[in-house]
Each structure stands twice: as C-alpha cells, then as structure tokens.
C-alpha cells in the first residue's frame, strides 16, 4: 500500500478558508476580548496587530513552508530536512494529541448551550450555578462531547477536499456573517442601571478600541506584550503541527505570500470582531467588571447579558452559540486531521480506518476529562501559581509549556541550522516575490528566539519559581 498521502486542497481559497477555520477558534472568542479589556483596550489591539505582522507571520510562514516543501506531516517533516532534528516532529505531535483530549469537551459545552437556547431555556442558562451544575453532572457532558466529536470525526473521515475544504467553504462565510451581525447589534444596545447611569454599546466600543495608558509601566507593558504573544498561539494554530500538515496539502502553484496574508487578515479580523461583539455587550449590562476570562465569559457572563436583552436575547444567544460551535468545530477538525494524517503514515493504514480509531481513542480520553469535574476532580498547583484540574492541566502542558518551547526550537532550527534561505526558496516558488524576506530572516534568527525564550519562561512559570526561591 502506498502510505504517502496525496490529498490536497483544490486551490488557494480552499487552503485559506481551511487554515483560517483552524485559526479561528474558541480562543479568539473567550480569550481575545478578555485580554483586550484587561490590557488597555486599543493599546492591546495595536500591540497584537504588530505582533501578528511580525512574529505571527514568521511562525506561520515557517510551518506552512516546511509542510509544502517536504510534503510531510509534522511527525516526519523535520526528520526529512535533518535527521538529527527528527525529535522535534515528535514533540510537535504531542501538542494536538493533548489538545484533542479536551477540545471536544469544550465543543460539547457549546452544543449543550445551543440546545438550551433552541428549547427556549435561555433564562435557565443565565441562572447562577447553571454552568457548574452541567459540567459536574456525570452523564450530560459526555453525551454532548460525543455528539460534537462525532461531527468532527465525520468531516475528517471524508478527507481533505470533500470533507475539510468543503465544510470550511460553507461554514467560514456563515461564521463571519454571524459575528459581524452580532457585533453591529452590540453597538445598538442601551441600558440604564439601578443608579440611573446610562451605558451604550458605542461607549463599550470606546472602551475596546481607545488605548488606555493609565498605570502603564515598563513591567506592565511587558505583561501586555507577553499576553498578546501568547494569544498568537491560540489564534494562528502555530507550533502544533496543524499548519505543517495543512501546508503539505497546498499545491505548488499556490502563491503562499498572498495566502498567508489572507490567513492573517481573516484571523485578526475575526478576533477583532469577537471583541467588538462581546466587550460592548458586556459593558452595557455589566460594566467593565463583567469581563471574565475563559469559560466564565462565554458560559456564565454572556448568558446573563443575553437574558438582560429581553426577547431579542434568546435569538441572539442561539445565534451566538451556533457561531461559537462553527469556530470550535473548524479548529477541532484541524487538530484531529493532524493526528489522523500523522497516524496514517505511522501505521500504514487508510484515512477512514484511522479516523474511526482516533475518534474512539479520544472519545475515551475526553470522557476522562469530563470526569475531571466530578469523579476525578482534584486541584493541582502549577508552576505559574495557578491551580488546575484535568482540563486545565492538559491546556497548561500543551499551550503554556510545549508550544513556546517548540517555537523556540523551530526558530533555532530554521534560523541557524538550515538557514532562512531554505524557507525563501519555497516562498518564491513560481517566480513570486517574498516581500518580507529580510524581515523574516531577521525575525527567525534574532528576535523571535529571544521572545520565545521569555514567553516560555513566563508561561511555564519559571519566573514565578525563581522569585519564590530568591524571595
């Protein structure tokens, strides 16, 4: 049997929408708005945009170019280039394997809320304790997780062009349409609190986009910079093998320069619209105090906002969670595709068989993660000072530890072992001009490794440990 994968995207649009679908995930919706609200509004937006155009472009270009030039998945790509660096492929493979254990769990939570709003029980979702009661129950979270995972596995089962690309071409325009619609609606909101204070969506927009420099010191600026940098990993799907895998499906006649710019635009645009959708709405009904991070924002704060909207809130809530489900599904598909594609070559078997096997394995793993909120509940102190249960632990290892570390090693490998010209050749295929060639070489060799080292030490909690040792 020929184990080499010949699947490919039909063209540039299929690649861009699929890659953008991978990049646009739950992190854009529950993490980006929170960071923007916490880190000076427009100041964070400016810093994030500059990082996307420099660091993000560097990491994204590296992954996609490696994938297309080697025509290999992450597991083998680094070893094909240099056998001594084969280990980096295995490290990269670990990231989607860890993320897959819990991403479908979050997808199941979103699916549950879709059903809640479909059955006209939005007021129940706004009650204190509703979300906690759901995730701590023993059966319901597993049921909804399996439904979400089954949809993911079915699309991956169908393949690259007929499954992933076809789904992305349908879903991504719809996703963007819904985000724009809710964002515009948020700007029309108006609310008078018990003290007679009037808050409007346009005021909330000001909180979001106007730079707030109050209390900005050198240390605080560095914190904002590192927050924006860590968000890049959530947003662009870099350093987890996904973009290497998707790059291996890109045909040689596709202009990578243009495609990568379009992915940057899509991902950054959706992240910005997510903030424009959420921050004004939360500000109107809860003020700046209502902006929480992570699941608390999406499953606790926002249902209260939708309930406060009155009759329109139920419809807006339903559309919102369908939109989130689309974002979660496109990301989960890319994670599972990376695992399936690697294992197809590793075990010399078909896509259909491996999709079923991977689906079953991670159904079991995700069920264990679900039980981390009831039967297997524990609290583990992390090096960064936070406490974690099973889902948080998997997220910490993959996103806070492995991804910055893999990015650092990748920069060293490309910048100093094979050289930036190796990437330049792929970017300039078919006579296209790599317009950001000089910037890329400087970033990959000097700037990005330093920043990845700082981010790794910070996100892995090394700085916290050092401060604890030396008082």
Automatic annotation (TrEMBL):
SUPFAM superfamilies: SNF-like (SSF161070). The keyword Hydrolase does not apply. Pfam families: SNF. GO terms for cellular component: membrane. It comes from the Bacteria. InterPro entries: Na/ntran_symport (IPR000175), SNS_sf (IPR037272), YocR/YhdH-like (IPR047218). It is a multi-pass membrane protein. The chain crosses the membrane at residues 12-30, 42-66, 87-110, 130-158, 170-189, 228-249, 270-292, 312-335, 356-376, 396-419, 440-466. Its main location: membrane. The keyword Methyltransferase does not apply. It is found in: Membrane. Keywords: Membrane, Transmembrane, Transmembrane helix, Transport. PANTHER family: TRANSPORTER (PTHR42948). This is Neurotransmitter:Na+ symporter, NSS family. It comes from Enterocloster lavalensis.
